[in-house]
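Query structure, 513 tokens:
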């Protein structure tokens, strides 16, 4: 790729991916790299149009505090430091960082110096709300720098050295709560780094198709298609690039949502690819008989998936490439270190051990989810596929608590269908990031007509999140919940009680298992 390139140096800040997404929204290509995994020589070789330092949890005076060599500021490349990144810039260049008398956290009125290129745009007023999260502050700017913003508690909320193209902000312009934050980033990218903004999905599709053709030549490519956004967009991209050299295997494990298996098949019926659907429900159910432990369920399904995929792939014989729908959030390695494993994730499309192939290709590995969606639209995929909410690899199997039976699966599919219909009717299907039903293993007493019932309790879950690492429960209007609940208990046999899950993540996770 020959796009303009901005480097984001990650110091372990919680918003590292958000910064990258905002930069891409400004049509500038960027990559996130841990600060300690890239040296000056490599930076010189990459020759970025600009460098952005993320925030981070440390203090610049802390033991093992992340740092950068002074030379990075002498390359003639514009730098923008954010939060910890701003303090680090001040510290390394001879300024002073101290602990605030009053920490600033949250929305804070901030006064901007309009002479500074970050704030010069006519849309940005002299004072507006910014999002703060810090206990240290820059108490003395380095030589050659001027203060460019302040708040009532903090005398330096931004600083700059115009001649050296070095800029720093204590607040987080990437967070939605910072008014005009994206405009400030855009000003840095366009006015300071002189980027033109050549990163669009139209260009990406064109370039990527060319690259795939060059790489694959006349070879055969195999893809595990799950019907999720990533693998569907990848199928569309590969189909445009290499047509029938591509074979997609769709393993239907039987735990898809109601009608979903047929929908996936229908969506790809008219594409110029080889499409194989394997109906393997009985096989999966057989393996899961008597299993109620969540981790065992996940592992069993993950392993069985690979076995079914391998068996099908063997029928095709030798393939040259295995395509994977890996996207950028899976690739970014945080400077903060490894997170603990809470659940063993299964991504349909995981790596089989016994398929005879030469190489893996991952044409989406540099795209964020929203970019993947845009690319899908660009390639002509249907809105339902492009806007499909995330769905876990093990499917409804991890939304049925306890042992899975055919009856429970049908109950859950029907109830989930109704919930989704009501959410869509209320026009909430794009603003809620994920919403679904969970069949608990709990039964309780109810009354229907004049009769006693003793049936299952269904839980509804709906969350709003940007990264799925943390999530808020969605404040769905009561009327919508009421309509869903009424329909579910009336229309689905064996459910007599509906609850709404109002826990955030953490401490809960999004899925129940
Ligand atoms: P949790 O439950 O960990 O879920 O808060 C976070 C997000 O990940 C999805 N999820 C999965 N996705 N394979 C996947 O591809 C999996 O095994 C898996 N388990 C959970 C979940 O739906 C949510 O969007």
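Result returned for the query:
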């Amino acid at each position: 790729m020959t796009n303009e390139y901005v480097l984001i140096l990650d110091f372990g800040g919680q918003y590292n991916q958000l910064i990258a997404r905002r930069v891409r929204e400004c049509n500038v290509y960027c990559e996130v790299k841990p600060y300690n995994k890239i040296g000056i020589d490599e930076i010189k070789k990459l020759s970025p149009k600009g460098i952005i330092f993320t925030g981070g949890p440390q203090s610049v005076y802390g033991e093992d505090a992340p740092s950068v060599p002074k030379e990075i500021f002498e390359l003639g490349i514009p730098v923008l430091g954010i939060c910890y990144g701003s303090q680090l810039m001040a510290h390394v260049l001879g300024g002073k960082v101290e602990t605030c008398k009053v920490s600033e956290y949250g929305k804070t009125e901030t006064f901007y110096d309009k002479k500074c290129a970050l704030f010069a745009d006519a849309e940005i007023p002299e004072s507006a709300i910014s999002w703060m999260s810090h206990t240290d502050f820059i108490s003395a700017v380095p030589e050659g720098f001027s203060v460019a913003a302040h708040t009532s508690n903090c005398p330096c909320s931004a600083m700059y050295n115009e001649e050296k193209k070095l800029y720093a902000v204590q607040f987080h312009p990437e967070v939605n709560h910072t008014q005009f934050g994206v405009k400030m980033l855009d000003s840095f990218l366009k006015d300071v780094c002189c980027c033109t903004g050549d990163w669009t999905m139209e260009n990406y599709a064109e370039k990527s198709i060319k690259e795939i053709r060059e790489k694959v030549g006349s070879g055969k490519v195999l893809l595990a298609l799950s019907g999720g956004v990533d693998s569907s967009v990848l199928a569309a991209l590969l189909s445009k690039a290499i047509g029938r050299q591509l074979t997609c295997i769709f393993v239907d494990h039987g735990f898809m949502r109601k009608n979903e298996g047929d929908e996936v098949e229908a969506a790809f019926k008219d594409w110029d690819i080889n499409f194989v659907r394997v109906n393997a429900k009985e096989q999966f159910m057989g393996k899961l008989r008597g299993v109620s432990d969540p981790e065992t369920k996940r592992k069993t399904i993950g392993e069985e998936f690979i076995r079914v995929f391998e068996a099908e792939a063997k029928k095709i014989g030798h393939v040259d490439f295995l395509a994977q729908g890996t996207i950028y959030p899976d690739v970014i390695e945080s400077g903060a270190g490894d997170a603990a494993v809470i659940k063993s994730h299964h991504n349909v499309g995981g790596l089989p051990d016994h398929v005879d192939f030469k190489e893996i290709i991952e044409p989406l590995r540099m795209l964020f989810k929203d970019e993947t969606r845009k690319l899908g639209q660009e390639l002509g995929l249907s809105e339902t596929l492009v806007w499909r909410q995330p769905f876990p690899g093990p499917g409804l199997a991890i939304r049925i608590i306890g042992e899975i039976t055919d009856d429970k699966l049908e109950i859950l599919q029907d109830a989930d269908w109704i919930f989704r219909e009501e959410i869509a009717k209320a026009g909430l299907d794009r603003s809620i990031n994920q919403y679904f039903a969970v069949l608990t293993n709990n039964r309780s007493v109810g009354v229907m007509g004049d009769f006693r019932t003793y049936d299952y309790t269904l839980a509804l879950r709906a969350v709003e999140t940007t990264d799925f690492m943390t999530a808020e429960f969605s404040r769905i209007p009561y009327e919508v919940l009421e309509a869903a609940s009424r329909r579910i208990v009336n229309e689905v046999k064996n459910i007599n009680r509906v609850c709404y899950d109002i826990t955030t993540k953490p401490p809960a996770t999004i899925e129940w298992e």
